[in-house]
Write a structure and sequence with these properties.
With about 150 residues, the protein is mostly helical. It has two domains: about 1-30, no CATH class; about 45-150, no CATH class. It has helices at about 45-50, 55-65, 70-100, 105-135, 140-150. The model is unreliable at about 30-35 (pLDDT under 50).
Length: about 150
């Protein structure tokens, strides 16, 4: 049975107002989230969603979901995709400036490296989401250790 949010009295389902104090009531009551699940999602789903938009969703889940497994995947996402974003931006600048300084050779080398980093990022993104959704705690070798040093063990 739902209770009034103001006085705590029991109110009938779908009641518009409390019979005791007259406070307006919500028409539908949401079931409480499981203990420890701040996001209300299953642990494997929340972990996989840490990787969906790279470091952005990693930050969101790091601050909103306190389950150790989700914290690990969020921290790993921040480190992996944060580093890939910085590396990709740096290589993008390298091939643009390589065109100005070294001509076509500098441009093609920089562009090739930039595309390889982006391809590796997409492959890693897919692998991390799939492995995490399957319930596996997949660790990216250097990034997982760095994430644990920066964000603490989860």
């Amino acid at each position: 049975m739902p209770h009034c949010t103001k006085c705590g009295a029991v109110v009938p389902d779908n009641a518009a107002f409390c019979g005791g104090c007259g406070a307006p009531q919500a028409a539908h009551y949401a079931a409480p989230a499981p203990a420890g699940a701040q996001s209300g999602l299953a642990e494997n789903v929340a972990g996989a969603l840490c990787y969906v938009l790279g470091w952005i969703t990693g930050l969101i889940f790091y601050f909103t979901d306190k389950r150790p497994s989700v914290q690990f995947h969020a921290a790993q996402s921040i480190v992996v995709f944060g580093a890939l974003t910085i590396l990709s931006g740096g290589l993008g600048n390298f091939f643009v400036f390589g065109l100005a300084a070294g001509g076509l050779a500098g441009f093609s080398l920089g562009y090739t490296l930039w595309e390889l980093v982006n391809l590796a990022g997409v492959i890693l993104w897919i692998v991390l989401m799939v492995k995490t959704y399957q319930g596996e705690r997949f660790r990216v070798p250097v990034a997982a250790d760095l994430a644990e040093k920066i964000f603490g063990k989860a």
